[in-house]
Write a structure and sequence with these properties.
By secondary structure, the protein is mainly beta. The chain is 9% helix and 43% strand. It is globular and about 45 Å long.
């Protein structure tokens, strides 16, 4: 479970889908890194990722971790966005995992991911939905 401090540090990536584009080789890094793994550069420009892409692969979690028990089964997908960046996200609108398919077009929507107890912090992020 994320701490409030960690969630706060991740706001740009988690809430605005901000990535880093290497100024030297144009590789898009999500989440942003301090050094480009492709060319070793430390020069980046902040980039907002597109909200559309396709499912590269997926899995269905049938015994979820604490905090996700009401979402069973829990489909998780690796989505390649239209600019080539890849993100791991929950699938938000498919009740039957048999409806998932590799290559399926999806779009990312901002939704509640998890809450920390009855009076705790609510964590938001992006989930993929058909589209």
């Amino acid at each position: 479970m994320d701490s409030p401090a960690k969630a706060w540090r991740e706001y740009p990536q988690r809430y605005r889908l901000e990535a880093a584009t290497c100024d030297d080789c144009s590789k898009v890094l999500y989440p942003p890194r301090l050094v480009c793994p492709k060319c070793g550069s430390k020069n980046f420009t902040t980039t907002v990722l597109p909200r559309a892409g396709k499912v590269i692969t997926y899995t269905v979690v049938r015994v979820p971790p604490t905090g996700f028990t009401e979402e069973t089964p829990l489909p998780i997908a690796l989505v390649e966005l239209d600019n080539g960046a890849r993100v791991m996200v929950q699938i938000g609108d498919i009740a039957d995992p048999e409806q998932l398919s590799i290559g399926m077009r999806v779009r990312l929507e901002f939704r509640r991911i998890q809450s920390d107890g009855e009076a705790g912090v609510i964590f938001y992020g992006h989930k993929a939905v058909r589209g």
